[in-house]
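This part of the workshop introduces the protein records we will be handling. A learned vocabulary of local backbone shapes supplies the integers on the structure line. Getting from the letters to the tokens is the skill we practise here. As an example, a complete record with its sequence and its structure tokens follows.
=====
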Amino acid sequence: MYAEAIVRYLHFIGILTWVSALVAQWLLLKPSLSRAEIQRLAKIDTVYGISAVLVVGMGFLLWFGVGKPAEFYNVNGIFHTKVTLAIIVGILSVIPTLFFNRNRKGEDLQEQIEVPSKVRRIILIELGLMAIIPLLATIMARGIGS
């Protein structure tokens, strides 16, 4: 009983941190950034990555370890849609991560770097997909999709 509560708590904390990091990236992203700003975004991106790993890890524990039986999740189409969206968000996040990591190093921290429009567009798409996932989780929790 306590194990499930702790795993669910960590899953929720991971989700909140994951979304918060993504929102922070969106708010700090501009068409042109200094290396110092990119370094800040790279740190936020690290938090994003760690929180995503926490969400996935706790999600697997909920699926196969504690909580409802795995069959509840295995036959639920809403669950599979939710997981697919989370995977798509994770895959999309590779492009901004690569941009931040490639451009964070340099001697002149005030040097301005142009941010490709696709980086901003990808983060916006990630935010849109992340907004759908809680709706799917709520629907799934009601037993819909089985």
Q: What stands out?
A: The mean pLDDT is 94. The longest strand covers residues 32-34.
